[in-house]
């Protein structure tokens, strides 16, 4: 029979007093950094609307009122609507209406495009 006996040399504690103390000090310093140093403002959120590859208009979503409607007249008219600092296609005369299914977009980098109407919306921050 092969038995192993545990000795006090083989046992190891999960964390000693020094490790716990170090973790508490590090967490305290991190909390001070987070709460006392202001974060950089990201700026307003802007929706740039393009029609036929040219800039049609810009909408400041941070300041736009809910219910603001933007109508784009073209071969296939498109209507955009602003709500809760976001924008979406609400009506398009294109045959498949895929653009209406994007829903609201409002985060920097998001985009929605209606290819048949040649209309695109790209969201970005004013600080970019």
Terminal residue distance? 72 Å
Strand content: 25-35%
Count, helices: 1
Strand-pairing-aware structural class: alpha+beta
Which blocks of ≥5 consecutive residues have pLDDT under 50? none
Strand order of the largest sheet: 2-1-7-6
Account of the 3D structure:
It contains one helix and seven strands. The chain is elongated. By secondary structure, it is of the alpha+beta class. A hairpin with a 5-residue loop joins strand 3 (69-72) and strand 4. The mean pLDDT is 83. The chain has one helix spanning 17-36; strands at 45-51, 54-60, 69-72, 78-83, 86-92, 111-114, 119-125. It has a four-stranded antiparallel beta sheet, with no helix packed on it. Strands 3-4-5 form a three-stranded antiparallel beta sheet, with no helix packed on it. The protein has a domain at 45-125: mini-chromosome maintenance (MCM) complex, domain 2 (Sandwich), CATH 2.60.320.10. 16% of the residues lie in helices and 33% in strands.
């Amino acid at each position: 029979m092969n038995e192993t006996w545990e000795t006090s040399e083989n046992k190891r504690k999960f964390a000693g007093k020094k490790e716990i103390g170090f973790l508490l000090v590090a967490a305290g310093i991190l909390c001070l950094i987070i709460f006392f140093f202001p974060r950089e403002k990201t700026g307003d959120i802007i929706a740039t609307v393009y029609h036929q590859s040219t800039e049609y208009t810009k909408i400041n979503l941070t300041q736009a009122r809910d219910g603001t409607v933007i109508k784009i007249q073209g071969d296939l008219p498109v209507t955009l609507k602003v709500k809760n600092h976001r924008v979406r296609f609400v009506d398009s005369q294109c045959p498949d209406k895929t653009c209406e299914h994007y829903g609201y977009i409002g985060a920097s980098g998001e985009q929605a495009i209606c290819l048949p109407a040649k209309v695109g919306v790209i969201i970005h921050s004013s600080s970019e």
